[in-house]
Amino acid sequence: MRPTNERGVLVIGASQAGVQLASSLREQGLDDPITVVGAEAHPPYQRPPLSKALLQGDLPTGSLVFRSPQFYAEQRIDLVLDQRITSVERRPDGSGVAVSSSGRRFPFTRLALTVGARPRRLDVPGADLAGVRYLRDTDDALALREDLTRADRVVIVGGGFIGLEVAASVRRLGKDVTVVLADDRLMGRAVGEPISEFFRRAHERRGCTLHFSVGVAAVTDDGNGRATGLDLTDGTHVPADLVVVGIGAVPRTELAEHLGLRVDNGIVVDEHGLTSDGTTVAAGDCVNCPTPVAGASPRMRFESVNTAVEQAKVAAATLAGKRLPYRTPPWFWSDQFDLKLQVAGLSQGCDQQVVRGDPGTERFSVLYYRGDTLAAAECVNSPLDFMAVRAALAAGSTVPAALAADPGTPLRTSTRPSSTGAPAPRTHGQDVLA
Amino acid sequence: MPTIRYTSADGDVREISATTGDSVMQTAVRNGVAGIVGECGGVLSCATCHVFVDAGDADRLPPVGELEDEMLDGTADDRRPTSRLSCQLVVSDELGDLHVTLPEAQE
Fold this sequence. Notes:
Chain A is an alpha/beta fold. Chain A has 9 helices and 28 strands.
């Protein structure tokens, strides 16, 4: 039976990708009703500061909101909060009704999934004890900040971005910090060895204790249901008042599976953000998409603000009846202590790396090449290098490795047309190199 | 409340009553001012909130920080003497009204 109030685009998920998708739909000229429904009670907000400024206490949560209430009203975007969609009824033409856990019904003609990811849970005895925290949303961050007022010793499980950003924030608050990780280097999935090694030394210099290549056997208990530390798989016990787990995120694919969409480490989409049903789009941390640059593995699930934003623009274009392939070289950043890491491009599959500058100065970059073509840069406290490489990658340009190795030569003036890579069409904006 | 006037590269003007404590970037993004992106949220990581401030306002503003200075050298539209990253300009009653002009490109 068709609902009588069938209407417009329904965006499920009110975070970076969802809000961008809705905003971009209006920019693309779509006049249909747009509803964005979010599971959290907070108006859509930025997540990156949760592990940094918010945890360190110098940021009111209200300052993180993306858009004012007036913006949503002016753009005729109906923002519905505190409603988690748990099922979707669909007709063959792609339209249907989504239903929330409280029974509220959201009819749609087209559906967009921007449902994000949830923290991967630590699966060991004691993992449910009080004093074991995860960090994904505002409520997590506020709870962790509150716990920190009573904790002196904090142990962090995981040496990726969340783990290290939390480690830096907590250390800055003057606490004892220990990080334990299964990998033999920091941020191993995201950056190359020189950056991992640099951050190892940098965290140790600033007083963090790091345990590599070790698992967690159990969270230990004070007898009253509260965590007292970790037993590690090598037999070490790390005492702590607070345990923070940052061991990655798992895409939220339940709705996609419920809809019969193809799922493989995320909701599988094409370069236009279309899922396997040919009508639903998806964007952000929840999707597995064709990698937007050549030379890396063919598909990826990438968790970053930039990826969420660019994928959302592409998905919005698709819903607006346009074709805009996702081809933007990804970039992301991480702030730890006074160290700004900025990464542009993907270093996967590279066969040459150039260290530019001296890691000892805490200001240097590593550039990655596939053949003689620039593919990525990882920059520490070197924003000018980062921006030059981001712009070069977007324009399909390269920087000769010999020039890049000399930190006295500005990268921006050293770019050349790439001999192998065709210029990547951008999803928006214009080329920035003269 | 201080008013921030945003003039686009095409000459379109938007005036917004800003909340003190918000940055000029946040004020723009929250209200949908086209031409200011602010993808990193204001932590000096993206340089997509570049503006040209009015010459008359320039000397009232806080000085350009070290990191901001370096980021400004890499903006999509070339830096000018009045260039700032609008995430670093915090709206306050003391600072009062501001007028900024947007570059043609941010990224």
